[in-house]
Design a protein that fits this description.
The structure holds two protein chains of two kinds. Chain A has helices spanning about 15-25, 30-35, 40-70, 80-115, 120-145, 170-195, 210-240, 255-290, 295-310, 325-335, 340-355, 360-385, 385-395, 395-425, 435-460, 475-505, 545, 550-555, 595-610, 615-635, 660-690, 705-730, 740-760, 770-800, 810-840; strands at about 430, 510, 570-575, 580-590, 645, 650-655. By secondary structure, chain A is mainly α. Chain B has three helices and no strands. The chains are: A mainly alpha, B mainly alpha.
């Protein structure tokens, strides 16, 4: 595709367009603008700044832990406080620092790197941020009430059930963490759609920056990996709050179910943290080797296979719980297999450096720290993947050393490299060379002196999570060394953050692209405009800036693609998934109060819940549903033309008319996430079945009685009616949607009635047995989906009456029909599990 | 069926590892079922080995198909080079998926199902 240019603009037209773009894209001024901002640059930087604030909080907790362990018999923290601090330290670092910080980097960088103006769902991104912030504060607010969680970051039952943890600490953990996880899930939807659809014209899958590949794989891993934990948290919370049984052996439950659900999330989580960091490494290495990355194809291969294999490792956290050896061996084998793709990546990076002319600037220095530390952590990882070795060191400080080598080596060093690498882009200034190098050596030396001895203290028998250790173990001098060094590490980390903050005000002004990098984000001028590119770039290489020296200047002029903001709307371009061929103009929403208000409503809902004011929760839920409807009503544009001019000789449809509309793919990804949640629940059902003698226990009974069969037929009616809506709309326009979607909603209501009756007839109260609990949960889970599909269907029918949906703008009808199809399929599976399986078994 | 997860698409790149994932889940579930329900341990081991054959066959088929697609795509123009890239990635994934399946199945040869 040739570059489209309009060199014959009248004088003054270019600056008029630039001013209009700035007016359209800038946040509103003042405090109001800060609270309503949805722009990816603003939201991304907020994620990063908040992530660092939580890093400091989690780090401060770690310092207390180290002080307590500095010498046997110390009294810095009493045992209860120690357990709380260990729990909060791990939880903060995993959920409130490591995952969000990488989402922040991705949200800030990806549109710039891919040549887009914004992410496809700006308000969703802002909503995710507020959920993350409020969820984190929710978790910490437990400290104010003297109810901090203390069950360890993995919250094992039975320690965390209502009998052994009667306070609210565990509730603060379950609710706060799940609240914050909304951000991870919304980010997964947003990033997948952005990477698949919102790349610059010409950026096919061969030319995508490796950071984008890494984030694509990571986002899919979040989509499949987070739901098991979300489900586990829901199950544990309803066991604690409403007396359901899932983990209590006396009534047919199984505490190991929690461990499975937790680690089904927990192990992919390690790679959800590492893969974005690996993406950062691939970007930084190419720039400082001053050559294209070696083995691009191999790195893509490694990212994809790591994404899969990381789901086959979860039981290696459970080697000591008494599972048969063969099952352990499966996970041991997968744990060793995952070293292969990781090794491929390391060799590709080394090959790039070998073949290039490495330039040892500060970001590169941090990468050297990454290589040394991460390879060490990887090697001890292969050691603990071996079952007999793991039995020896399980729950000792050897594992503490291993996991910190992997996480600090695999996340913190690359993240600091990325911080220094992109700081000139965000700030327009260069960081202090002397402070950043000193800080690196403090972090590097401090880290290794703190954690290397822990391998030895662990091998000598010092246990994890215990507030002290006997002097006879002979590890006190090593612990004193660890404590002293950990303060050097902390001081170095603080120095890095101070350096980065100072850079924004006092740094030496840098020029554009100070590292002479080749990827698109470095084409941007400083200060980076809110709209990123005045004209969208056209790409013909993996490193566009190295290949095309005029690109930066051209994209800063409003003379090319989408350079004319005549519509007065925020607009970006959508391209095809594989080839990067322009397909649609995506119109994006501007600043809005909706994200903040919705997150506040969720916070109020959860606060009522934890205070056991359930009626209040229900009232807030009604408000929240109203808010979501109001929010959704503002999407779409009934006056949008079917085609708009994106540039000379390039007319494109607006997204509401395009098959590959972002909203469609967002639905697909959302249903993947929901499907994973549902699969986790079905897994829980069968897991509980396998461990129980009588299923269902007498006098409960199951079976497809006539009411149950009526329910199934009504579910089929829902599906058929929704599927017919497409044809009816093609003939009769949006107004014709009322009939099929109304019928579907009525049939859905009938289904809820019949299914409730069918389940209630044979299943006892949920508190009696795990069977009843899991059946009621499965039925309730699906009923919520039916209710949501009814609401969505009626909403779309109303939109059809008002002209938002029609034959030329079919997107919302497609979403409603697909949602009904999914809900019907899920319902058929749930129906079979509830009514047929117990008879067959 | 030939168009299913075509090697020039993202689904095609992921397909061989998806086969690994299914094989892994089936073996692990079978092991849990056999031990939980008290089925014959020897029979379970043989079933696991037997189930490995279709998994390896599927991966081999996907890999060979990707290899052929990579050769056929050539290098004339960006679309052809893109198709070749995706097909090569799919073929390499098939190699790693084969290794991963073999890794999974080796313990079946060495250990009884439920001890």
């Amino acid at each position: 595709m040739s570059e489209a240019r309009m060199d014959t603009l009248p004088p003054g037209e270019n600056s008029r367009r630039l001013a209009a773009l700035a007016r359209i894209w800038n946040n509103a001024p003042g405090w109001r603008g800060q609270l309503t901002a949805v722009n990816h640059g603003t939201v991304g930087l907020r994620f990063i700044a908040t992530g660092f604030a939580f890093l400091l909080a989690g780090g401060a907790l770690a310092m207390f832990i180290r002080l307590q362990l500095a010498w046997p018999g110390n009294q810095v923290l009493d045992p209860e406080r120690y357990a709380q601090f260990v729990t909060l330290h791990g939880t903060t670092m995993m959920f409130l620092f490591a995952v969000p910080i990488m989402e922040g980097f991705a949200m800030y960088l990806l549109p710039k790197m891919l040549g887009a103006r914004d992410l496809p769902f700006p308000r969703l991104g802002a909503f995710g941020y507020w959920c993350y912030l409020f969820g984190g504060l929710f978790l910490y607010s437990g400290l104010l009430f003297g109810e901090a969680p203390d069950g360890g970051w993995f919250m094992y039952v039975p320690l965390t059930d209502a009998t052994y943890s009667p306070g609210r600490g565990v509730d603060f953990w379950l609710i706060g963490v799940t609240f914050a996880e909304i951000a991870a899930v919304t980010a997964a939807v947003e990033l997948i759609v952005a990477i698949l659809l919102c790349r610059a014209p010409g950026m096919d899958i061969r030319r995508m920056p490796l950071f984008a590949w890494a984030m694509l794989v990571t986002a899919f891993m979040i989509a499949f990996g987070f739901p098991p934990l979300i489900l586990g948290s829901i199950l544990l919370e309803i066991q604690r709050a409403f007396g359901f049984v899932f983990f209590d052996v006396a009534r047919g439950g199984d505490p190991l179910l929690w461990q499975h659900l937790f680690w089904l999330f927990g192990h992919p989580e390690v790679y959800i943290i590492f893969l974005p960091a690996a993406g950062v490494v691939s970007m930084v290495v190419a720039t400082f080797a001053r050559r294209p990355i070696a083995g691009y194809l191999w790195i893509v291969l490694a990212l994809v296979t790591t994404g899969f294999l990381s789901f086959g490792l979860w039981v290696h956290h459970m080697f000591a719980v008494g599972i048969p050896l063969l099952a352990l061996a499966f996970f041991s084998a997968a744990s060793m297999a995952v070293a292969i793709p990781t090794g491929i990546q390391v060799f590709a990076w080394l090959a790039t450096l070998w073949a290039g002319r490495p330039w040892l600037r500060v970001p590169m220095l941090y990468l050297v720290g990454f290589f040394i530390t991460f390879v060490g952590g990887g090697l001890t990882g292969v050691m603990v993947a071996l079952v007999p070795f793991d039995w020896q060191v399980h729950d000792t400080h050897f594992v503490v050393a291993h996991l910190h080598y992997v996480l600090i080596g695999g996340l913190m060093f690359p993240m600091f490299a990325g911080l220094y690498y992109w700081l000139p882009l965000a700030s327009g200034r260069m960081p202090s060379e002397s402070l950043s190098r000193t800080a690196f050596w403090m972090v590097f030396v401090g880290f290794h002196l703190a954690f290397l001895p822990m391998h030895l203290t662990g091998l000598l028998g010092m246990t994890r999570r215990a507030y002290s250790y006997p002097e006879q173990l002979g590890v006190h001098w090593l612990n004193l060394l660890s404590t002293a060094a950990s303060f050097v590490l902390a001081a170095g980390t603080v120095a890095i953050l101070i350096d980065a903050a100072l850079c924004f005000r006092h740094g030496r002004p840098g020029r554009r692209n100070p590292w002479r990098a080749g990827t698109l984000e470095w084409a941007l001028p400083h200060p980076v405009p809110a709209y990123n590119f005045a004209s969208l770039p056209v790409v013909a290489d993996r490193y566009p800036l190295w290949q095309d020296r005029g690109l930066a200047a051209r994209t800063a002029d409003a003379t090319g693609l989408l350079g004319d903001p005549a519509s007065g709307r925020r607009e970006s371009m959508g391209t095809s998934i594989l080839g990067g061929v322009p397909e649609q103009v995506i119109r994006l929403p501007g600043s809005s109060w909706q994200p903040l208000l919705a997150a506040l409503a969720i916070a109020a809902l959860l606060a009522c819940f934890i205070a056991r004011l359930y009626l209040g929760s229900v009232l807030v839920l009604v408000v929240l549903l109203g808010q979501f409807c109001a929010w959704a009503w503002t999407t779409g544009d009934r006056h949008a033309p079917a085609r708009v001019q994106a540039g000379p000789r390039l007319g494109l449809p607006v997204q509401y008319a395009c098959r590959n509309a972002p909203g469609w793919w967002a639905l697909v990804v959302t249903l993947l996430i929901d499907g994973s949640l549902f699969a986790s629940l079905v897994f829980a059902y069968f897991y509980l079945w396998l461990g129980t003698e009588a299923w269902p226990p007498a006098p409960m009974h199951a079976g497809a009685d006539p009411t149950a069969r009526v329910a199934l037929v009504l579910l089929g009616v829902c599906w058929i009616a929704a599927a017919a809506s497409a044809r009816l709309m093609r003939r009769g326009g949006g107004r014709a949607l009322a009939l099929p979607l109304g019928v579907a909603a009525l049939a859905g209501a009938g289904f809820l009635r019949a299914q409730w009756q069918a389940v209630a007839s044979g299943t006892g109260a949920p508190g009696e047995h795990a069977y009843a609990s899991v059946v009621w949960t499965l039925a309730g889970f699906h009923s919520v989906h039916v209710a949501v599909a009814m609401l969505v269907g009626l909403f779309v029918a109303a939109r059809g009456q008002r002209g938002y949906v029609g034959a030329e703008r079919p997107l919302e009808q497609r979403i409603a029909a697909a949602l009904w199809a999914y809900v019907a399929a899920q319902g058929a599976i749930a129906w079979g599990v509830i009514h047929l399986f117990p008879e067959w078994a | 069926m030939a168009r299913f997860a075509s090697p020039s698409t993202l689904a095609g790149i992921a397909a061989p590892m998806a086969v690994w994932a299914v094989h892994f889940v089936v073996l692990y579930s079978l092991q849990g079922l056999a031990c939980g329900e008290g089925w014959s341990q020897r029979g379970a081991s043989w079933a696991m080995l037997a189930l490995t054959v279709p998994a390896l066959a599927a991966i081999t088929w996907l890999g060979l198909r990707a290899l052929r697609a990579a050769r056929a795509a050539g290098a004339a123009g960006p679309a052809a080079r893109r198709a070749r890239f995706a097909a090569q990635a799919a073929a390499l994934c098939a190699v790693l998926a084969t290794v991963a399946v073999l890794f999974t199945v080796v313990p079946v040869l060495l250990l009884p199902a439920c001890r």
